[in-house]
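Archive maintenance. Older records in this collection stored only the sequence; we are now back-filling the structure field for every entry so that each record is complete. The fields below show one back-filled record exactly as it appears after the update. Entries are processed alphabetically, and Phosphoribosylformimino-5-aminoimidazole carboxamide ribotide isomerase is next in the queue.

ARCHIVE ENTRY
Title: Phosphoribosylformimino-5-aminoimidazole carboxamide ribotide isomerase
Organism field: Ruminococcus turbiniformis
Length field: 259
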Amino acid sequence: MKFRPCIDIHNGKVKQIVGGSLRDEGDRAQTNFSSEMGAAFYAEMYRKDGLKGGHIILLNHPDSEYFCETKRQAEEALHAYPGGMQAGGGITADNAAEYLRAGASHVIVTSYVFRDGKFYRENLEKLVRAVGREHIVLDLSCRKKDGVYRVVTDRWQRFAETEVNTETLELLSGYCDEFLIHGVDAEGKRSGMDEELVEMLGRWDGIPVTYAGGISSLEDIEKLQHSGRGKVDFTVGSALDLFGGNIPYETVKKYGSGK
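Back-filled structure field:
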């Protein structure tokens, strides 16, 4: 189990938001924290501390007036830590290689593959042809509905047909190098992780999986290590003291080696 750091960028600033509150109209989001430091500052910190495999997420839609500044911040972070972090947000087969050239180790893909409540396998296949599965992270952000976890699309507002279970992970692992899975109902709320989801992820033996959502204390991290059988990596956002929370970064970064 490893700690994967994050840099979320919204309206050109490093922020932590309540994930389900993000709206493209008016570039609005419920903000937990907004940093005065640029994205490169955090990337350089993670580089010095030897934390690999974290993610940089561009939260603005490509049509947003803020997108250019958000992208600039992301590129500066990638240049500060070449090969050390992944990049996501508006990734397609047409622009994925651009982020890899900028220094991303992987691209994180969501809406290009899952949107309008549907799974577009042909787009995923196109992306694999463009950059290779070894550079792809699939984001299977999900919420529970009728007793099962389903991928949610369109800013996490619409349920897709795709269930998140071990069978889906097995099927999709042939197209990617890792999974990033947000427990959307817990994301950004510091209310504790989705333990049932983590337990399910821990039962699967496959490519690396990173869980995000709701981790609010060191006790949660210990619980995740147990529930995920030591196989599920994790990220901490709003609860980390770097972003206005209470969990000490200096403590959590010790999980960076996976020990």
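Update note: The chain has one domain: 6-257. The two ends are 7 Å apart (CA to CA).
Entry marked complete.
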